[in-house]
Amino acid sequence: MAVTFETKGTDSQTISPVRLVLSNVVSIWLAHWTIILPVLFVTRLLYKRYASPLRRYPGPWLASVSRLWKVLSTASTNTHLQHIELHRKYGRVVRIAPDEVSISSPEAARLVLSAGKHFYKTDFYGVFPPPENPDIFTEVREHVHAQKKKVANVPYSMAAMQQLSPFINDAVELLMTKLSTIAGGQAHDARGPEVDLGAWLHYFAFDVLGEVAFSRSFGFLEQGRDVENAIKTIDNSQRYNGIVGQVPELDYLLRRNPLWKFIPALDTKNALITRMALEELGRRKPFDKESEGRWRGGDGRQDLLASLIKGHLKDPEKFAEGDVFAVAHGAIFAGSDSTASTMQSFFWQVLHDRRIYEKLVSEIDTAVANGTIPPTGNVSWSEGQNLPYFQACLRESMRVRPAVGLNITRIVPPEGAELDGIFFPGGTKVAVNGWVTHRDKATFGEDADIYRPERWTEDEERSRRMDRYMVQFGGGAHVCIGRNLALLEINKVLPRLLRDFRFSLVHPDRQLNAHATFFVVQEGLDVFIEKRV
Ligand code: HEM
């Protein structure tokens, strides 16, 4: 029905009811927007808080109405510790965002991370660069991820990694030389000169990746410093990714905003690593089956880049040239801080308890005496496997201080799923954090909060059971692709360091300075160092 009315000096006019309603709404809005806006805002908050199927789960109030709680928690860089506290306070399921819960049950975590259960990655990962050509870590389209991972799995197999062992050995050798020089230098303490062991382990992890991915060293060990601030740049970038990843839409206003490029201080492109990856890619062109992706002027090794080029040549449709770059480049970002953090945690935990340190050194000495490991030179992967207490210390470090500090979050499949005896509707985000699940007393023992390597050696059956619930490398279709490489280098370098040097903490009463960006970046592993052989 139309409304007819007279206007002065004109004929009667007809206004449609839609226009009438609209004009009323606009005038009400203009007159009362200062009241309407807050009312809408509060209604939205209350809706999120009370109308959501997650309303019955406890947690911080802010988290139930907004993702701001997650942003603040991530920005604090203490989110891993906050999650431990949250579960202590609220129980096994905690609401950490309007549409997200964190779970502490290792059984549920295992299910969420299992292959074939259809819990997929959230858009958090899409923020990690490069958005235009996602790599294995950042690709959230599961079928595309599966295609890429199939190609990338080949060079990451333990057999392929073992072939690159000589180049890892070179990096170990260089680390030993550098530390020997430091240990032989002037000391102000009877326990030897001081050294930032954490920094050297970080340089080592980087240089190994350069060798394995591009057959080139980044030069961190050689120069004994963070060359071109590459480590710092990665950390800054990860901090940004971690925070903005909680509200991924923000990325379009920030890093994906074309104006961002004009603020040099905000540019997180890693010059050294990107340049080296591009140079190396250029050197190997044109790609052909004959060279199998290797640089014709090189030592003929089948490095990660070569294997990826080979995979690209086999099926350029499924694994494009951009994927070769993205996956090789992404390996440096995913593999450096993670491996360094694991080794730093190991040393800090072991050195923090002299009983454990002495027991470990005694195992190494006995192994040398009975020929299990050589008295000098490199320790091989299989020799490292014959050191049960060392293996227990390593596992316990990855349990108590896993390298990933942010939650690993997945989406419940559309049909919903039961976790820890509770049904969650499809679309719910479920977060898992190793810092929480690895402290579950029913799984890891009443003393799960403390570092006690013996828990892994007391009972084989129990040790196997605990191992099933460790998520330090994630799980399922997204299990860490670089875990063979990481474990190989760790098993080579740590026993050798313990055999060749004696260490003690400079500040035994201080905690290791740990910031969770995505990985737990650690600083302050200052030690006294003495040569043993
Ligand atoms: C001790 C060292 C390492 C630890 C503790 C570690 C841990 C993890 C974890 C927990 C994930 C799963 C993340 C998630 O689902 O959100 C992951 C994935 C990944 N890691 Fe590692 N990582 C380590 C070393 C490496 C290395 C050396 C590389 C490469 C050279 C690497 C490359 C990757 C990639 C590409 C992914 C994504 C896998 C996928 O989504 O399919 N990591 N890592």
TrEMBL record:
TM segment ranges: 26-47
Needed co-factor(s): heme
Signal peptide (from-to): none
Pfam families per record: p450
Record keywords: Heme, Iron, Membrane, Metal-binding, Monooxygenase, Oxidoreductase, Transmembrane, Transmembrane helix
Family: Belongs to the cytochrome P450 family.
Name of the protein in question: Cytochrome P450 oxidoreductase
Organism: Sporothrix eucalyptigena
